[in-house]
Specification:
Family: Belongs to the class I-like SAM-binding methyltransferase superfamily. RsmB/NOP family.
Largest sheet: 8 strands, mixed
Number of strands: 12
Protein name: rRNA small subunit methyltransferase B
Function: May act as RNA methyltransferase.
GO molecular function, one term: RNA binding
Keywords: Methyltransferase, RNA-binding, S-adenosyl-L-methionine, Transferase
CATH superfamily of the largest domain: Vaccinia Virus protein VP39
CATH topology of the largest domain: Rossmann fold
Radius of gyration: 26 Å
Strand content: 5-15%
Oligomer: single chain
Bound molecules: S-adenosylmethionine
């Protein structure tokens, strides 16, 4: 204590001892009064929406931190999560309805007021919260933050929204389903049209399969865990976590959607398990299952950060006495790979996979889990669908093509390369593989054979997984062999 005081008077450079400070008189609020009832759940949800809008933050990083800092738990935490993630996911649909009920264009609505309107509209359209409670609690939040004028505007808009349910608004505002089925399904399932279009092209359908895919993509997903091979079985992991053994991955476990922060689970903390979508597990395993003649000890993960697949690959190659090289361009993500794979036979290299300096023709198996739009994992990243732009696709495909081409040089003749993206967009999937296979002469394997027991894998040779068919993210996997 003394040291602290000395330090502070010294640092101020004061010659006179400073007078003890009187506690400041309470400041009179000249602005609007605070809401009479504290509402920690909605306040946390609103602060999350604001961080997403103002700072391009990720809702699923911001909210857990807010909940921890504010010690919000139990039902309040569950409500905050439902509202923050739900309103982020449904943003385009909510905005369409809000605009229809507003006397001014959304571009003229203050950002914080728009966040509150989204929060209120989400409660009205997509939860069972009684309308009067949804409206009153949102108006209270706005009055506390922005004053009674803004509160009046929000009250008027939300009251107009209560006049119909979600289906009614979709019927009124969506394009005619006969004339524009993709536009209709996009709005009805809160997806941007260009993404619904990309799904339709990958599915080869604008009808029932597209509807099911968008619906599944709009639902809150279960958390998937992967058991670390050689450490714990999926049965044991399921028993430890209260989850269910996954249907397809021999290492997978599914937890109930909204089952809390999986990082708090003992097996995850003790590094017996990692959070990883079952589709990602299956794609990494497909590479390990491709038939190979000759040596099988040197594996490479060319885009490794943050290390989910590297853990699985390293654990498996380690059981056979081999090792994994892991390349990652971003230093902080390479550090995550180092941490998550510590204790496993992994050499982490920070660098560009297109010019890694690693020796060509020496690897038995190479994974290219390429940077992609992530359109296949939108259900796990609440705001991502509204942030991604069609122009992102073109920027990524050049890099994807170059990484796959380099992987086919790094692998030995007869060795195999797995090309994986978390996206069903045809420009990132079949177009890349077709182009690179043509130019390099690599043999394209029938990847379906490397997904044993998984149904509905289509005509091949590549595998496209889907939330509505497999309960996984929409992962794409192709497997190529370098011709000897
Ligand atoms: C889809 S993620 C990989 C996910 C990882 N395999 C996992 O399962 O956790 C793609 C990674 O590639 C990295 N990356 C981007 N450009 C790269 C490049 N030119 N060379 C190597 N890595 C790159 C990104 O930083 C990102 O971490």
């Amino acid at each position: 204590m003394t040291g602290e005081r000395n330090h502070s008077s010294h640092s101020r450079g004061a010659s006179k001892p400073s007078r003890p400070r009187k506690p400041a008189p309470p400041r009179r609020r000249t602005g609007p009064s605070r809401p009479p009832v504290e509402d920690p759940a909605r306040t946390a949800a609103l602060d999350t929406l604001r961080a997403v809008r103002q700072r391009d933050a990720y809702a699923n990083l911001v909210l857990p931190q807010l909940l921890r800092e504010r010690r919000i738990s139990g039902r309040d935490a569950a409500l905050a999560t439902e509202l923050a993630y739900g309103a982020s996911r449904a943003q385009g649909l909510l905005d369409t309805v809000i605009e229809a009920c507003s006397d001014r264009p959304l571009s003229e609505v203050d950002g914080s007021v728009l966040d509150a309107l989204r929060l209120g509209a989400y409660q009205l359209l997509r939860t069972r919260i009684p309308a009067h409670a949804a409206v009153a609690s949102t108006v209270d939040l706005v009055r506390g933050e922005a004053g009674s004028g803004a509160a009046g505007f929000v009250n008027a808009v939300l009251r107009r929204i209560t006049q119909q349910d979600e289906a009614g608004w979709v019927d009124e505002l969506a394009p005619d389903p006969d004339e524009d089925p993709i536009g209709y399904l996009a709005l009805a399932n809160a997806h941007p049209r260009w993404i619904a279009q990309a799904f339709a092209e990958a599915l080869g359908s604008r009808e029932e399969p597209l509807k099911l895919a968008l619906e599944a993509d709009d639902a809150r997903p279960a958390v998937h865990l992967v058991a670390r091979p050689g450490e714990v079985s999926s049965d044991e992991l399921a028993a430890m976590t209260g989850g269910d053994v996954a249907p397809y991955s021999p290492y997978g476990v599914h937890l109930e959607a909204g089952a809390g922060d999986p990082g708090d689970l003992d097996p995850v903390r003790e590094r017996l398990a990692t959070v990883q979508d079952e589709g990602s597990q299956l794609c990494a395993l497909a590479l390990t299952r491709a038939p190979l003649e000759g040596t099988d000890q040197r594996w490479l993960d060319l885009c490794a950060g943050p290390g989910g697949k590297a853990v699985l690959l390293a654990a498996l190659v380690g059981l056979e006495g081999g090792e994994l090289d892991a390349v990652e361009k971003a230093p902080h993500r390479a550090e995550l790979v180092r941490k998550i794979t510590s204790g496993l036979p992994v050499n982490v290299h920070v660098g560009d996979g297109r010019e890694s300096g690693l020796e060509h023709g020496t690897y038995d198996r190479v994974l290219v889990d390429a940077p992609c739009t992530g359109l296949g994992a939108l259900r796990r990243r609440p705001e991502a669908r509204w942030r991604r732009q069609p122009s992102d696709v073109g920027q990524l495909t050049k890099l994807q093509r170059e990484l796959l081409t380099e992987a086919l040089l790094l692998v030995r003749p007869g060795g195999v390369v797995g090309y994986v993206v978390c996206s069903p967009h045809l420009s990132e999937t079949v177009a890349i593989v077709g182009d690179v296979a043509r130019r390099t002469g690599a043999e394209v394997l029938d990847a379906r054979e490397l997904f044993p027991g998984v149904p509905q894998l289509g005509d091949g040779p590549h595998v496209q997984l889907w939330p509505h068919l497999h309960g996984t993210d929409a992962m794409f996997c192709a497997v190529l062999r370098r011709v000897p």
